[in-house]
Protein 1
Amino acid sequence: MGAGYDDRDGFIWMDGKLVPWRDANVHVLTHAMHYASSVFEGERAYGGKIFKSREHSERLRRSAEMIDFEIPWTVDQIEAAKAEVLAKNDLKDAYVRAVAWRGAGEDMGVASARNPVRLAIATWEWGAYYGDAKMQGAKLDISKWKRPSPETIPSHAKAAGLYMICTMSKHAAEAKGCSDALMMDYRGYVAEATGANIFFVKDGEVHTPLPDCFLNGITRQTVIEMLKERNIPVHERHIMPEELEGFQQCWLTGTAAEVTPVGQIGDYSFEVGALAREIAEGYERLVRA
């Protein structure tokens, strides 16, 4: 494979057909490039099976509806396309990216109702999102940017526009030698990392921010189910930044991140403890079951 994501061997499913990887292009006047009219999903396949694939396909369509367009493929068709692109690229353990967007068409302004909605699905091999942090614990910066109010943007959509400040936050974190950044919400409560939800442990109980203004991740929901099956109390609530000092363990969850322990957030340190490791190992077993 080439170094860049635009220069690789393989095939991408695009608008109903498989096209060679390097030919999967869009026009420079694509509406989504100018106005962020795009939604996407990140998924992982383990042993050739995408974990909770249908839930991801359903969320993709819901996200599109939240930003005012309809994907012209059903959930069943999206599922079939994902299977097709995995098989065509001969991949078993892989990351899968489905993206839907308003393309180039008759409109080139804020309004774009006459432009076609397009869909593409790509897949590639991708290792641990945070590298060796799974063993040592990720180091997080604290972002100056805040997750927006649901009154200002469809905050529960997995939409491209919501990730602009995430990219800026992660770049700032990496410049400081960190893996990621913790973001607060518009009220000042602890929210999430730039592409992952967050959990904390105190005295054997788990605390996680209430997802009332950010994405309630599929991995997040899975981990909460795992904790409840183990009879570990889970508190979904608003968490103030000053509470970080009192938590003993911390981890991130997400399709890309899977379950990654956190060792440091700003000036606060956390143990990569037994519960964090147990949940990370349990999640690994679950996705490969």
Note: The first strand starts at residue 11 and ends at 14.
Protein 2
Amino acid sequence: MILFVHGVPDTAILWQPLTEALGLQPDSYRALSLPGFASPLPKGFASSKDDYAAWLISQIEAAGEPVHIVGHDWGALLVLRAVSLRPELISSWCVTNAVIDPEYRGHRTAQMWATPLLGELVMLGMRNKARLETGLIAGGMPASLAREEVPHIDLAMRQSILKLYRSAVGLRFRGEWVDDLANIPKRGQLFWGETDPYVDLSVAERFSKRWNVPLHVARGAGHWACHERAKEFAGVLAAHWSR
């Protein structure tokens, strides 16, 4: 079983070009929807990074066998957390355009979302769908994807985003989230859009060197390289899974 985990502010729609490029049959994979992201919030779910990590582990356990798991953006961070806690559940892992890195201080929007009142003001601006779509495209999201994703960015998602980023102090990781990376399975892969304006390529290079993980750079691609370079990514994953 292959699991795909999207990030912020995306939904499982993100993975459609990739699953098609891989030629996957419906019973061979699941494109998960994070709670609150076009998906219901479980009762008592607080939308913190630890809540999402525990939820992801429950989804991996439900597969009933070791999985291949792929994550983008926050999905990548959650994948790394899950595989560091439960490596025995993992056949292989791959993350794209985000890693847990104690030296990374978070991009500007992440820092604003993590700041009380300022984050709420930013979210008020995100209610304007046309302006939001334009902003996402300016940040590198493919226009076709932005048109599909923006209608799903509702109040529940906006509130979930604020809680998630505040639990991570705007993407500043330390403590066990960093220390437990020593447990990640060796069968890993990084895929990175070279021109990502949110997480610089140097972050991927540092992680690759520190943890001895292969890094594939999609030249000229941005933060959503997993979507805009689906065929290229499919080739990387096919080679990764065959090793």
Note: Residues 189 and 213 are 6 Å apart (CA to CA).
Protein 3
Amino acid sequence: MNPALPQLTVQNLWKVYPYGDYRVEALKGVSFEVAKGEMISIMGPSGCGKTTLLNCVSGLDTIDQGSIRIDGVEQTELKSRSRDAYRAGHMGFVFQAYNLIPVLTAAENVELPLLSLGMKPKLAREKALEALSRVGLHDRSGHLPSELSGGQQQRVAIARAIVNQPLIVWADEPTGALDSRTTTMVMDLIEHLNRTEKITFIIVTHNPDVAQYSHRTLFMDSGHVIQNRANRGRSV
């Protein structure tokens, strides 16, 4: 990718949900850009469209109108199967609830996306252990989620998100289930990965302390981006 071009360009994005005889406009002409290696936070009141925006731009949900271009690829022109394959091969996801499979070890959870892409098990395990090392959990690779703390489980989820060397990691309230001390530890890790490995992170959060880790914060209300504010002390 040309470093002078945005890694993500969203233009005039609309999402409408039918609700009986009514139509709920969840996103109303949203536009923004993200450079490679940026960390962006999305904030706003409940119901303003934050998670809808993340789901639509990442391809987890469809859109009604607009353009989403990631690394030069127009996502709206991809067929459903191709869009799913692009997402699996080029994106990572972190959620509030961790979404780890309870009967699988940390290493098995992390290698799962690679196995689903057809990678050979031996190589997938090597890459999973490498990713766990990057988040400081190599010594917990054989533990089940129930044997890990909440912060450790989220670090496993982050390892799973970065194991395929994604273009972008999408994080929906990644610290929502954590206490303040563990939140700081997890966000320090995300900031480290963003700064040292230039992984692009887009984070939905209600926590202003989390948003301060980002280069910029997009503030939403009623389906609109109402403010795009740079955060002090951070530059790409």
Note: The beta strands are 8-19, 22-34, 39-43, 65-70, 73-74, 91-95, 168-172, 200-204, 216-221, 224-230.
